[in-house]
Amino acid sequence: MSTNRNILTSPVGSIHFMAAEKPVKSTNDKMVYTIRIAFDSKKDAAFLKQIAEINDAKVVTEKTYRGKSEATKAILSGGKSLVSANSNFKPMVFDSEGNEIENAPMFFADSKGTAQMMVQPFVGGKGGTINLVGIKIHDITTTEGTGETTDRESRLAQLRAAAKAETE
After folding, report:
1. SS3 per-residue string spanning the chain
2. Using one digit for the tens of pLDDT, what is the confidence trace for 37-48?
């Protein structure tokens, strides 16, 4: 697959996690904007195959997941695959009608969306990275918590709700 700086737009998937307004700390302690989307492993197989050709570690399945989150395990066991894209720069976020959202909440549980991703293959053999360019929110069903809970507590509650909805 020729992926030299191609831009891919994902199919519509369930947003598992999104930090498009404020960056979060990545695994290597860098601050990044990020999105993680759950896709139907069978229906979206062609897209997932494209991502795996770039960097197979970018597609997380029930077999490849090494984390401990029961909510994530429940989503993956329901026939879903997770794909993440990051950016050092703030991505543009749009609503379903194409209007830019100025102050996007950090997380949408159970929302539907797409992400535009720029593919950057590594020089040489197989591998590469996927950078987040833009996000389009198609359907918002739950937004970030507004009570006395912390962001972490709010995200955990939303993850539990998302996992429960996926398994019912």
Report:
1. CCCCCCEEECCCEEEEEEEEEEEEECCCCCEEEEEEEEEECCCCHHHHHHHHHHCHHHEECCCCCCCCCHHHHHHHHCCEEEEEEEECCCCEEECCCCCECCCCCCCCECCEEEEEEEEEECCCCCCEEEEEEEEEEEECCECCCCCCCCHHHHHHHHHHHHHHHHHC
2. 889 999 999 989
